[in-house]
Design brief:
Largest sheet: 2 strands, antiparallel
Structural class: mainly alpha
Shape: globular
Strand content: under 5%
Strand order of the largest sheet: 1-2
Number of helices: 15
Helix content: 55-70%
Radius of gyration: 23 Å
Length: 418
Amino acid sequence: MPNKKNKWNNLILHLHPKLIPEKAIKYTLTWGLGGMAALQFVLLAFTGILLRFVYVPTPESAYDSILYMQNEMLFGNYIRNIHHWSGTLLVLIVFLHMLRVLFTGAYNQKRGSNWIIGVCLLLLVIASNFSGYLLPWDQLAYWAITVSTSMLNYVPLIGEYLNKMVIQGSEVGDATLLVFYNMHTGLLPLTMVILMGFHFWKIRKAGGVVIPQENDEEEIKKIPVIPNLVTREFVVALFLLAFVFLLATFFDAPLVDEANPLVTPNPSKAPWYFMGFQELIMHFHPLIAIVIIPVSIIFILFNLPKIKDVFPKQGVWFHTPSGSKLAKKTALLALILTPVYILLDEYLLNSVLIFKHGILSFILLVSFLFLKGFYLKRKLKANKAEIIQTISIFVIITFIVLTLTGIYLRGEGMKLIF
C-alpha cells in the first residue's frame, strides 16, 4: 500500500523546493501574504461554486435567490458571508502583498516580469470583486455599479462607448447582470488561475522569496522545507480561516432593498475600493481623477522594474535609519495635508475661480511630489530606493484618507458630515 505521507510530501515539494534558506521562514520577511492570498482564492472558489447552485442571474430572480440563500438554504447565509468577507480580504491582502514586494525591492532584476504578473493579478482581483458586487441585485449593488461605470463617461472620445460596452446598454439591466455573472464565475477566475500558476512558477524559478544578505559572499544556510516552512504556513492558514469564519459568524454580508432603477439613494456611492476615485472627483476635474491619475499609477507600476540599481540590498525594508525616518515623516505629512486640503477645497477653494475643478491643485500636487523627490536626492542624499519608498508612502496614505473620507464622511449630496 502506497505511503500516504510520502504522497503528501511529494505534493508539498511541487510547491516548494526541498531545501530553503533559513532566513526565508522568518515571518516578518513576507508576513505570509502570498500564501494567504492563495488560500482566500481557494475559499472564494469553493464557496462560489456552492452559491452558484442556487443563484439565478436575472433581475427578476437574483434578489429572491439571495433571500433564499439567507433564509431557506442550510448554512446559505453563512456561506455567503464567508464568500463576501473572503473577497474583501483578498483585495486587502493582495494590495498589502504588493506593498511588501515594493518596499523590499523584490520586483527588481530577474523578478521584474513576475512583478508585472502580480500587478495584473491585483487588477483582476479588483475586477472580480467589482463584477460580483452587482450580483445581489439590491439598491446598494445596483447604484454602486451605476456610479462606478458612469465614471467611464469622463474618458475622452471613447468614454460613452466604454460605459455602454461594460454595462451592455445605456443603463444597468438584464444584460449587465448576465455579463457580470459570467465574468465573475468564469472568465476572471480562470484567468487568475492561469496567472497564479505562472506567478508561483516564476517565484520557484527565481529561487524563492528574496532574503536579505549583507554581501554576495555570505553563506546561505539551508533547512528542509518539511516541517520548518510547512508548519508555519499551516498555522497561518488556520488563523486566517478562523478570522474569516468569525467575521462570517458575527457580520452579515450587506443586503438592502431590491434594486429599483427609479429610486436613487442619496448618497449613491461606488464600491469601497473605488471610493478613493469617487472622492477625487470631488476635488479634481473628472479627467484628472478618472483617467490621468489611475493611468499614471498603472503605467508607473508596470515600468518600475525597468529602473536599474534601485535597491542595494533586496529583502530589506529600509536600508538606512534615515530611510525609516523619512517614511514615518512622510506618512505623518500625508495624514495632515490630505484632510486639510479636503476641508479647504470643500469650504473655500472650490469657490475660488483659479482653483475651480482642481486643475491648479493637481498641478501643485505634481509639483510638490517632484520637488520632494528632488529635495530627497540633492539635499538629503537619499538613494533611489528611499525616494521611491517615500513618494509611494505619500501617495498611498493620501489615497487611503480619501477612501475613508468617501466611505464614512460623505452624506446626502456627497456633502461632508461630522
